[in-house]
Amino acid sequence: MASYKLLLLPGDGIGVEVMAEVERVIDWFNRRGAVSFETESDLVGGAAYDAHGQSISDETMRRADEADAIIFGAVGGPKWDSVPYDVRPEAGLLRLRKDLKLFANLRPAVCYKALAQSSSLKTELVEGLDILILRELTGGVYFGEPKEITELGNGQKRAVDTQVYETYEIDRIARVAFELSRARQSRVTSAEKHNVMKSGVLWKEVVTQTHKDGFEDVTLDHMLADALGMQLVRRPKQFDVILTDNLFGDILSDVAAMLTGSLGMLPSASLGAPDGQTGRRKALYEPVHGSAPDIAGQGKANPLAMIASFGMALRYSFDRGAEADLVEHAVSAVLDEGYRTGDIMADGCRLVGTQEMGEAVVKAMDRLAV
Ligand code: NAD
Ligand code: IPM
Ligand code: MN
What ipTM goes with this model? Predict the structure, then answer.
């Protein structure tokens, strides 16, 4: 039986709570599935800072490098608001993305049938919604230099963040978008701000060029990122794949999350380039949401984004489409049965906590697998 090594990094706040539920799903596969997983857990984020003064240690990075996939919860929280910038909890996640070269971040926003009424938008606008946001993850303003705050000597300070993109970075994420779109509706909308940003000018130029290099069967449109934000809440179903940079992708994916009912529903996969020899790629799977300090420690968090992120690991790291479908069908089934955490609660449904939701998913897997 195929067996894979997973590094679990629960992190902080609800990251720890939702990770416990994904472990239930992993255990299920170890008991029942045709694929099994060896897991080890480690610290990241504020938890790692508290233990050894760094938001991720070199030893944890080594383990991450060796794992077949990393399953990541969430990091951050008010407790670490005043720690030095370089060791803040979020820096651990950014190091994982950058050092492992996880440039392609897939954020699917799918509105499950049972949740169409939980969206803040009208049901008919989101019913059947299925968008894939492709966010560039290792470049742009997150990593560009200089990045600094300097004293100007007159009581004023100057803060600089730098947006940098090179041709190859745009080209490789565009290729992933075009390729993935072919298994969908073959439509890609690329978002930038070429009207005010040089990096936007290059983004549009490179995406247009890459499109001509063997992807002309895919329909490509360009949209200014602010207008795309507006269209996402006006008529979201017009989109199939949205291709965008690191910062716009961060913002637009939180917007898209609310179309699906809750931030607690959106999974993600962060993928590196396939290895030339083995074809395997480094990958990290995490929910789009954060550590949710407002509900942390109360057993209220929705674990479905975390569980669906593991579903993405089955699909993209282990080529287990049937098993990934099983996880997704189980998530859909528990929603159909009326199980709801607080963030997606609706009239006539059954309010459950994190653990009960995780248990319900595993029970649904039991039923659906026979
Ligand atoms: P957040 O995503 O943690 O929470 C935003 C809102 O959504 C909160 O009201 C929260 O209760 C709710 N929410 C989020 N996930 C939920 C879930 N699974 N179930 C139910 N409700 C959920 O964003 P924030 O409050 O802006 O950030 C809190 C901290 O998390 C910050 O330190 C931030 O940097 C960090 N963060 C980390 C990640 C990550 O680790 N990948 C992502 C985003 C934010
Ligand atoms: C996300 C988060 C991260 C980001 C933070 C925690 C660094 O918001 O994964 O969406 O900005 O990329
Ligand atoms: Mn974000």
Answer: 0.98
